[in-house]
Amino acid sequence: MSQVIRSSKILGASLARARKAKGLTQDQLASKANTRQATISDLENGKGGTRVDIVLAILAILDLDIKLQERTDHQTDISDLL
């Protein structure tokens, strides 16, 4: 899976798809990431506030990485993303 992530909603939807593709429930993912099911739900629904270490643990469990690269569309204002 390759996905450009520019908002918490897109991140959440991508994580939900990856979780389901692995056949995991939110409870199972939360248990593996040592967090609460509500945290997984909040993250998948695009709510902010999840600690970076939890996000990184979830990515590792789902066999995903973060890759930083320069944007190809420089006309997007950060306020459009939030």
Notes on the structure:
With 82 residues, the chain is mostly helical. The chain has a single domain, classed as lambda repressor-like DNA-binding domains (434 Repressor (Amino-terminal Domain)). It is built from five helices and no strands. The chain has helices spanning 8-21, 26-32, 37-44, 52-61, 78-81. Helix 2 (26-32) packs across helix 3 (37-44). The model has no long low-confidence stretch (mean pLDDT 91).
Helix and strand run: HHHHH
- The SS-based structural class is mainly alpha
Q: What is the level-2 CATH architecture name?
A: Orthogonal Bundle
How much of the sequence is in beta strands?
A: under 5%
Largest sheet: none
Shape: globular
Distance between the amino and carboxyl termini? 24 Å
Instruction: Calculate Rg over CA atoms.
Output: 13 Å
Residues in helix, %: 40-55%
Write the CATH fold name: 434 Repressor (Amino-terminal Domain)
CATH superfamily: lambda repressor-like DNA-binding domains
Summarize model confidence as the mean pLDDT.
91
Count the beta strands. Answer: 0
List the defining traits of the structure above:
434 Repressor (Amino-terminal Domain); 82 residues; mainly alpha
Short structural summary:
The protein contains 5 helices and no strands.
Helix and strand layout, with pairings?
Elements: H1 8-21, H2 26-32, H3 37-44, H4 52-61, H5 78-81
Helix pairs in contact: 2-3
